[in-house]
Structures are given as structure tokens and as C-alpha cells.
């Protein structure tokens, strides 16, 4: 037995692999043998990581794990980025798993909330991605990791293609701590374009019956962008990006930020901002960014993962994207999260609820969506030391002349319409997270971004610059001042809000020189997916669900 085979609780790796010896030929395992393989190497109570993130999913292995005999394998502790597939939830419904540490749930948010209410799952924590990766190397190292790759060669080396994503972090933690790594691949090739994971970090390789599932999560059809979103995007460009000279940034997912991306070659260019804002990005390859890239706005994009249909376009722009010799992108979620936290001056994203202190959360009653990367992107990086114009200006506004040690400040922007789907108000007196904390047995509410990290809130009513608020009372009135006709907004102190407007703490569109009549969809550089295809020179190949021609 290798001395490294048994370094955390559970049966040593060599003994587990011995039980599965008859099921494999070298590292190769036939798809029909994977259920038996999992029942041989996975033990009750193991920490198991089923790779799944915003995009690619180890779906065949997840489906197979959900089909093992729960009398033989049960009470697993899942430690994984995303609970996105029905099979992930089925693991809890069948009693195969009982504990969860995760980051994001997306389409399973409602089912996950139901399981919590029924007491059928113990959620230990909702992490940010980077936080969960870090814990893989401290106290949440997987006993078994089930991962996905594009291809393997005969030796078991893996090629992850443009969707490397979480794979290196998961495999390195598992393989070097005595755990077992099982990879599903789309195909076995004689030679690989590059080796992303070396064979001796992988225990088993299975050629899955179908290619791994991948979700085009970051594709937004410009046809669905509203004129309210155009208005908010104009305010952001003029009132924040131009004001601070933001060149390094990250955008969250959504139509709000897609509208900003599509206004760069038009509205921002008209303001003379080309080369002065939005040049360097930590961002997935959003199709909505194609017009800005082609207009010369964008100098570089480093990505967490890829986006379905963008492969040929990315290969044609190695001057912008990080690509290998084969032309495919090399993404890496851990590195891009670190870039978003430390190397970017601004994060802008959306949320489901904001309270009077600016705390926000996407974990609401009946829906536990998780946080993904937002808490890292949306937090002031207090370990940062390099300077930039935007970072310095935001720090100066935060100090407001006080005799304190000078330090910069990251811009963290929450961009929401005052009412979201089904006329649910985005602004609330008290976050649902307080009730969820009780239901989940947590000591602290699951807050996505804490209010003291938020610098600006943007709604269709205007921009609240929280950096300029002198105390908690002003901060509350600034938030109420942009909360529109929600109950929070209607309860504002009109005199105090007027005073905040006079000081520039609250900026209305008119104060930014923006007429609401200007906010037309005609400003969008692309008004349909077909436009994006045309602007890409036909290289962007959108998934069929986005094609209507």
C-alpha cells in the first residue's frame, strides 16, 4: 500500500480499488460496470464531489450514483459547487446522501428548499465557489470525486477543452489526499490536443453513453431586453463606469448586465468612453459581449468556463480570450474567481432581496438558489494592494475627508428593478434569510453580499451611492429613495431623500443627463440573437433554443 493511500477517515484507497479490480481494465471501466464500481469504491458516510457547476455536468456519473442500492451506499456528504440536476436532488430523496455543502442550486432551488423544510437534508453551508474550493484542501476533501472531461487518451490523461472550470481544483484535492477520482469522458482519442489533468491523478475513466450535459447559462437573447433595462444600463455607464473610470470588471448573469454590454459600442461610444472603460474582464464568454469585442472595446477576457456555441468565435479571437495551441479556451473557475476578487475594480450583479442596510440574498423562503461566485466578486478585497484610478476614487469617497489611513475600495453594485417576477418587491424590511437560517439550523442568515460591501444600488428610479452616506440613517433613506413604489420606497422620508438628491447621494436619470425617452431598444448594438451571429461573422453558433430563423 502506498503511504499516501490512507490519510483521512475511511477505508484506504488501495483496499477500495482492490474491491473494484475485476471491473476495470487498467483505468478503463465500461459504462455498464459503473454502478458496480461506485458500490465498490464509495462507502457510507463518504464525502463525495459530483462535478457540476454553472455549465458542464458529470451527469452520467450523477445519474449512476443516484441509482446505486441505498442499502449499500447511504448517508453520503455531498461537497460540490452546484446542485443543478434532478439526479443531485434524487440522491437526497433516496437517502443515498444526507448532508450538503454547496454554492449554487439554480433550477433545483425550489426542490432544495422543500427538502430543507421537510428535514430530509442537512445543509451545512452555502459557500462561494472559491470558499468551497479552499475547503477541499482543508476540511472538506472528497473521498471520491466524480468529474467530467471532453476526452481521454489510452493512458487516462484528460482533455477538458474549453470547459476546464472546476476540474483542476477537485482533482488535485482528491488525488493528493488519498481519494479516488472517476472521470466520465465524451470520447477516447489516440492523442489529445493538450493534457489538462495527468493520468496519474485519475483512477478510473469511463466513456459515457452520451456527451456530458452543458447548460448555456450565460446566453441572453437581446430581443428580451426591456427599455427599463436599457435605462438602467445607461445610468450605470454614465453614473458609475464613466465617473470612476472602471476598466477591470465582472458582470453577473442577467438581462440587466447584458443590456450594459450591448450599449458599449453605441451609447458608451457616443460618450467617448471607448478605451476608457470596460477593457479587461473576468467573465464567461457572454454572447452579448460580441459587439463590444468587435468594436474594439474589449482587450481581454479570462473566463470561469466557456459558453455553448461560442467555441469557434473564441478560437478566432486569441487576442482577447485565453486559448491553447488548439484554439480552445482554457477556463479555470478558481483562477477567474481570484481574478474577480483581487484584480477587478467593479462587480455588478443582481439579487432577489435587499434590506434597509443593503444586505442582499438569493436565498429566499421557498427558493434556495445559493450564491455562486457573487460573494467573492461582491466583496471588498481587503488584501488588495495594487492601485487603480477607480479603486482610489472609491476609497476617497468612502473616507469623505476623515483622517484615516488611505486605502482604496472595490465598487460593488447591485442592479435590480424595484419589482421582480410576479410583482415581488426587491426591497424588503427583513430578508427571508433570517427565517431560512432558523430552518437550516444556521447561526447566521445566509446573506449573499453584506451591506457594508455594497457601494451602489441601481434601480429604474436612480442610483444610490452608499459611499457618500454619513451614517446608517442616511444609508437607509438612500436605499428607500431608489426603492420606488415598494413598501420600502413608499415609507421614505421625502425631505431627507430630497437632501440626499441635492448632495448627489441619489442620482436620478435627469441628474445624469439622461432623458427617459432616450432609453430605447434602438440603442442596443444587437437586438436579436441573429444579430449576434451576424456581428460574429457567422462564428457564433447559438443553441437551437435561441434560434427562431
TrEMBL record:
SUPFAM superfamilies: NagB/RpiA/CoA transferase-like. GO terms for molecular function: transferase activity. Pfam families: Mal_decarbox_Al. InterPro entries: MadA (IPR005777), NagB/RpiA_transferase-like (IPR037171). PANTHER family: ACETATE COA-TRANSFERASE YDIF, MALONATE DECARBOXYLASE ALPHA SUBUNIT. This is Malonate decarboxylase subunit alpha. It comes from Pseudazoarcus pumilus.
Amino acid at each position: 500500500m502506498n503511504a499516501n493511500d490512507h490519510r483521512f477517515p475511511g477505508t484506504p484507497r488501495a483496499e477500495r480499488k482492490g474491491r473494484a479490480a475485476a471491473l476495470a481494465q487498467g483505468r478503463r471501466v465500461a459504462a455498464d460496470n459503473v454502478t458496480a464500481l461506485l458500490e465498490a469504491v464509495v462507502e457510507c458516510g463518504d464525502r463525495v464531489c459530483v462535478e457540476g457547476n454553472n455549465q458542464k455536468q458529470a451527469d452520467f456519473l450523477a445519474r449512476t450514483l443516484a441509482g446505486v442500492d441505498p442499502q449499500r451506499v447511504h448517508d453520503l456528504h455531498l461537497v460540490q459547487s452546484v446542485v443543478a440536476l434532478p439526479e443531485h436532488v434524487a440522491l437526497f430523496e433516496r437517502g443515498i446522501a444526507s448532508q450538503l455543502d454547496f454554492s449554487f442550486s439554480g433550477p433545483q432551488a425550489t426542490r432544495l428548499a422543500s427538502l430543507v423544510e421537510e428535514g430530509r437534508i442537512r445543509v451545512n453551508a452555502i459557500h462561494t465557489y472559491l470558499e468551497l474550493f479552499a475547503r477541499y484542501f482543508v476540511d472538506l476533501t472528497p473521498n471520491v470525486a466524480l468529474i467530467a472531461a471532453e476526452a481521454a487518451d489510452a493512458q487516462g490523461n484528460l482533455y477538458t477543452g474549453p470547459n476546464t472550470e472546476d476540474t483542476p481544483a477537485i482533482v488535485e484535492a482528491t488525488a493528493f489526499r488519498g481519494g479516488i477520482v472517476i472521470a466520465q469522458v465524451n470520447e477516447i482519442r489516440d492523442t489529445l490536443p493538450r493534457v489538462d489533468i495527468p493520468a496519474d491523478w485519475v483512477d478510473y475513466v469511463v466513456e459515457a453513453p452520451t456527451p456530458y450535459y452543458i447548460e448555456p447559462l450565460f446566453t441572453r437573447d437581446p430581443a428580451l431586453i426591456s427599455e427599463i433595462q436599457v435605462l438602467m444600463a445607461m445610468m450605470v455607464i454614465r453614473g458609475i463606469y464613466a465617473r470612476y473610470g472602471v476598466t477591470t470588471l465582472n458582470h453577473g448573469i442577467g438581462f440587466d448586465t447584458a443590456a450594459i454590454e450591448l450599449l458599449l459600442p453605441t451609447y458608451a461610444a457616443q460618450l467617448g468612453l471607448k478605451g476608457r472603460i470596460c477593457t479587461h474582464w473576468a467573465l464567461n464568454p457572454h454572447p452579448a459581449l460580441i459587439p463590444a469585442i468587435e468594436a474594439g472595446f474589449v482587450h481581454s477576457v479570462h473566463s470561469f468556463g466557456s459558453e455553448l456555441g461560442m467555441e469557434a468565435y473564441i478560437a478566432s479571437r486569441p487576442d482577447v480570450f485565453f486559448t491553447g495551441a488548439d484554439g480552445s479556451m482554457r477556463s479555470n473557475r478558481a483562477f477567474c474567481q481570484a481574478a474577480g476578487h483581487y484584480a477587478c475594480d467593479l462587480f455588478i450583479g443582481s439579487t432577489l432581496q435587499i434590506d434597509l442596510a443593503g444586505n442582499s440574498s438569493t436565498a429566499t423562503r421557498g427558493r434556495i438558489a445559493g450564491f455562486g461566485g457573487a460573494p467573492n466578486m461582491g466583496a471588498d478585497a481587503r488584501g488588495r494592494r495594487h492601485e487603480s484610478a477607480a479603486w482610489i476614487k472609491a476609497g476617497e469617497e468612502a473616507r469623505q475627508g476623515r483622517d484615516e489611513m488611505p486605502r482604496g475600495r472595490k465598487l460593488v453594485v447591485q442592479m435590480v428593478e424595484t419589482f421582480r417576477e410576479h410583482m415581488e418587491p426587491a426591497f424588503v424590511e427583513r430578508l427571508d434569510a433570517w427565517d431560512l437560517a432558523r430552518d437550516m439550523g444556521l447561526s447566521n442568515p445566509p446573506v449573499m453580499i453584506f451591506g457594508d460591501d455594497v457601494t451602489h444600488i441601481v434601480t429604474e428610479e436612480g442610483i444610490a451611492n452608499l459611499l457618500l452616506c454619513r451614517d446608517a440613517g442616511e444609508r437607509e433613506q438612500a436605499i428607500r429613495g431608489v426603492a420606488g413604489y415598494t413598501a420600502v420606497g413608499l415609507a421614505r422620508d421625502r425631505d431627507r431623500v430630497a437632501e440626499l438628491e441635492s448632495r448627489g447621494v441619489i442620482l436620478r436619470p435627469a441628474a445624469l443627463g439622461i432623458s427617459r425617452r432616450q432609453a430605447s431598444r434602438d440603442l442596443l448594438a444587437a437586438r436579436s440573437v441573429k444579430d449576434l451571429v451576424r456581428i460574429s461573422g457567422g462564428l457564433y453558433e447559438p443553441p437551437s433554443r435561441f434560434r427562431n430563423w
